[in-house]
Amino acid sequence: MLEIDKIDVYHGGDIQALWQISLKVEDKEIVALIGSNGAGKSTVLKSISGLLKPRKGTISYGGIRLDKIPPQKIVEIGICMVPEGRRLFPDMSVLENLELGAYLGHSRQAKDETISWVYEIFPVLKERARQAARTLSGGEQQMLAIGRALMSQPKLLLLDEISLGLSPLLVETIYDVIKRISESRRITILAVEQNVNMILELANRAYIIENGHIVGQGDANALLESGAVKDAYLGITPAQGEVQ
Amino acid sequence: MDVAQFIIYGLINGSLYGLVALGLALAFGIMGYLNIAHGDLIMLAAYGSFWLFKIWHVDPFISIPLMMVVMFAAGAVLYVAVFSHLSKFPILDRLKNSILVSFGLMMVFTNMATVLWTADERCTTPFYSGMVIDIAGIRLPYIGLATIALAIIITLALHVFLTKTYFGKAIRATAQDWEAAELMGIDVARTYLFSFAFAVATAGIAGSVISTNVVSPSIGLDWTNYGLILVILAGVGNINAILPAGLLLGVVEAISVYLAGVPYTGVAGLVMFVLVLMLRPQGLFKGRAAL
Question: Chain B contact for A92, CB < 8 A?
Answer without folding.
Answer: yes
